[in-house]
Amino acid sequence: MVGLLEDMDLSNEYDVKAACQRVLKLQHKDFWLSEWNMTISDSKVVRDQIYEALRRVQQNVKQGLNWYDDVALIKAPWSADD
Q: Using CA atoms, how far apart are residues 49 and 25, in angstroms rounded to an integer?
């Protein structure tokens, strides 16, 4: 996600669409459907945790790992807390 905005013209619909498609290729829809380990609120701490979780998902997808490996924000499917 870092470096996406440098070459993007936010007033150009094509640039924005292309950047979103690049980001979404390295994400997983189940991230948004999973149970999270925190309460959501509009605060810097929460935004930072979501950012770090999305960054980890991106790294996992690039490396061919399970998208949820080491993503602290979500409860993994096998979590003992269930």
A: 20
